[in-house]
Structure formats: structure tokens, C-alpha cells
Specification:
Elements: H1 2-9, H2 14-21, H3 39-51, E1 55-60, E2 67-80, E3 83-90, E4 95-100, E5 104-109, H4 122-126, E6 143-147, H5 149-155, E7 167-169, E8 173-178
Antiparallel strand pairs: 1-2, 1-5, 2-3, 3-4, 6-8, 7-8
Length: 179
């Protein structure tokens, strides 16, 4: 945790860091549903990312029990919405792919190394995404969500996507059309 804090605060001046450290009894941050990845699996993926080494693993697809053998040139670990992901080049698919760390099994670092593309920036890759999810290419998808009073209160004041617009409806309801 100390290393993560140091990385987060390395660009701040010392006065700002002091104020952050001094807030211990002032602010409590509780993140519901935080995923706690298997420590050994996390360390394997972290090492593969840091050393530019290919990964081989078994992966359970979303909402199924189907498990497939996969390989990946892992570029970056990402924690989004309290869940850990690894983003990298999938040689089998010939595309950038995102995998949920908790659905990866039997992880192994393969022999050899790969070169991460010089211009790869995770911020660019995730631009326009919904959390970590994005459409193929530059396709935009328009989504409109109508919410009841309870869900509208959850939505108000939270930014789920950069194009999000919130329209208040009668009865304390709201709609969120976004592209």
C-alpha cells in the first residue's frame, strides 16, 4: 500500500502530501464490493507486465462456465470500479483485449519477452469507454436509461461516462441519454 501511495503522491508538493496524510480522522473511504484478487495471481500478472513477459492462463468467459485456454502480452493492470483487469495484446485474436483478473486461472509466465508498443497509453485506450468496457474501433453506442426515484438518486452527481447527460423527469425520476 505504501508503494501505491508514494506513486499517487509523487507529483504532489510536500505540503499537499502533508494535508492528505493529516486527514486520517477526517475522511473514511469505503468502497463496497471491492474485489480482492488472489495474491499469487496478482503477483504473476504484475511481474509479467513489469517484465514484458507473455502470460498463459485459463479464462472463464462472462456469465458462463465455459473455460478457454488464452495467452496475452499484458500491457497494464487496471483497477476500475473496485475490480482488477489486465489489458494487453491477444495474439490469438490479433487485438487488444481486457481480462478480469478474478476469472483467470492457472496463470503462468511464458518464456520470451514482447515489446509494448511505444505509443501505448492506457488513458488513450480507455478514452470513451464505459468504465473499462468499450466498443470495437471508434463506434459510438447511444444508450438511454430511464430511472425511478431510488435509482435516480444514485445516478445524480455521479459520472459514469464522459458524454453522460442527465435529464430530470417529473416525480423525481430522471433519464440519462448518452452517446
Amino acid at each position: 500500500m505504501q508503494a501505491a501511495f508514494e506513486k499517487l503522491t509523487s507529483d504532489l508538493d510536500q505540503e499537499a502530501v502533508f494535508h492528505v496524510l493529516d486527514l486520517g480522522d477526517t475522511i473514511l473511504l469505503r468502497l463496497p464490493g471491492t474485489e480482492e484478487p488472489d495474491e499469487e495471481d496478482f503477483q504473476i500478472v504484475l511481474r509479467a507486465v513489469q517484465q514484458c513477459r507473455p502470460l498463459r492462463f485459463r479464462y472463464r468467459k462472462f456469465a458462463t462456465q465455459e473455460i478457454a485456454e488464452r495467452s496475452l502480452h499484458p500491457y497494464q493492470l487496471v483497477c476500475a470500479h473496485q475490480r482488477w483487469y489486465v489489458v494487453g495484446w491477444d495474439p490469438w485474436r490479433g487485438a487488444l483485449r481486457t481480462f478480469v483478473l478474478a476469472r483467470m486461472q492457472e496463470l503462468e509466465i511464458d518464456d520470451g519477452t514482447f515489446e509494448r508498443p511505444a505509443g501505448f497509453r492506457i488513458e488513450d485506450h480507455l478514452r470513451g469507454s464505459f468504465g473499462i468496457f468499450k466498443t470495437e474501433g471508434d463506434a459510438e453506442v447511444e444508450v438511454e436509461v430511464a430511472l425511478d426515484c431510488w435509482a435516480a438518486d444514485v445516478l445524480r452527481g455521479r459520472r459514469w461516462h464522459s458524454s453522460q447527460q442527465v435529464e430530470e423527469l417529473p416525480g423525481a425520476r430522471c433519464a440519462s441519454p448518452s452517446a
